[in-house]
Write a sequence for this structure.
């Protein structure tokens, strides 16, 4: 879905730049290429009801994703996974 709120950036140790983008039904991840384009990499489903409000904050190599949606809790995602080919998944 293209609706949602919040985004947060992360710079990999090699200087590449990435963004996590809050969406109605989860979070999307993209790389900001050298020419300023967004390259979609994958998504993390919310595992809760849809919500317009999804907040993302970064801490070191991690994104913390929260929402007021029923049964959402928080999700923690290791951004190092998007800097190399991998399946986007949650961390427990």
């Amino acid at each position: 879905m293209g609706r949602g709120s919040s985004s947060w950036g992360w710079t990999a140790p090699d200087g590449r730049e990435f963004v996590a983008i809050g969406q109605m039904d989860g979070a999307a991840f993209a790389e900001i290429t050298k020419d300023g384009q967004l390259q979609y990499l994958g998504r993390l489903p919310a595992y809760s009801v849809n919500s317009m409000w999804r907040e993302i904050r970064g801490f070191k190599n991690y994104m913390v994703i929260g929402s007021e949606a029923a049964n959402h809790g928080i999700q923690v995602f290791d951004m190092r996974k998007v800097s190399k080919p991998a399946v986007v998944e949650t961390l427990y």
